[in-house]
Amino acid sequence: MVIDLVMEAPKRFSSAVRNALEDQLPMHQPVALRVRSHLCETATGEEIAAILARIRKRGSNGILLKAPDHSGIREEIAACRRAHIPVITLVTDLPGSDRLAYVGMDNQAAGGTAAWLMAGWMPAPLYQGKAVLAVISSYRFLGEEEREIGFRAVLRERAPHLGVVSLGEGGGLDWLSHDLIRSALMAHPEIEAVYSIGGGNRAVARAFASCGRRPVIFVAHDLDHDNRALLQDRTLTAVLHHDLAADMHQACALFIQANRLRSAPVTARPSPAHIITPMNMPPFT
Questions:
Q1: I need a labelling partner for 95 at 20 to 30 A (CA). Which of 140, 188, 220, 234 fits?
Q2: Residue range of the domain that includes 111
Q3: 56 to each of 60, 82, 84, 179, 199, how far by Cα in Å?
Q4: Which pTM does this prediction carry?
């Protein structure tokens, strides 16, 4: 079986996903699985739709897809289904499309978890009138929007004294994010904390340092190489992490079932967010 991995994401994250997927391939023997990767840091919806079209014409046993919500991508997912190529969305979902399943974190619950941490760290009246900077890579990704929705809902309930300043379109890329974040900090002196929904955390840290400030609490997503280092030096307070290995195992099992090579039913379930701190960081594998 050939699985095509299609992702628009910063290299640090797409590489982590690809490695986790490849590590899972031997676990599904006697089915022999192979991965073809189509990874890009930035792409238009039309470009990703074109990648899906090429895969469909070439043939595939399944597509694992992280992509923005775009009409052309939805149309191509429908075409893949007609061609009997199952598509599984990863990390950010495309509900209502013809995808087979969603694999990844429960994004609204993860955003709520971040808000729960903020509320405990920044109680009233000590932080009355202060704000949290919510950094999103792009509003094109539904998963990030769901995280912000969950974050705002729980923060309103548990810490109504805290405001939220949203900042998007840095792509999760350090070189794009730094100036946007620095401008936001200059315009909003009330910002005291960060919820990094979409990455670019080195840029966040540099922007705060250039303004002579340090966040009271800094919560981010995914235990990639950058975030491990930022946790170790206490730049990050906590990382909301989900088990990529478990996600990739689930995706492979779903693809095998969709290709009728396994009769036992497999049910897709969102992954819970684990709170990782410098005190409980798992070993790198």
A1: 220
A2: 107-241
A3: 7, 10, 9, 40, 31
A4: 0.89
Task: Tell me how far apart the alpha carbons of residues 79 and 98 are, in angstroms, rounded to a whole number.
Answer: 9
Residue 282 within a domain? no
For the chain (285 residues), the mean pLDDT of every run of 10, in chain order, is 95 91 94 96 95 98 96 98 97 95 95 97 96 90 94 98 88 74 94 93 93 96 90 96 91 95 78 93 75
Reported residue count of the chain is 285
Number of domains composing the chain: 2
Q: Are residues 111 and 225 in the same domain?
A: yes
Element (H, E) at 119: helix 107-121
Per-position b or e across 137-153, b if 16+ CB within 10 A of its CB: bbebbbbbbbbbebbbe
Paired residues of 135 in beta bridges:
167, 196
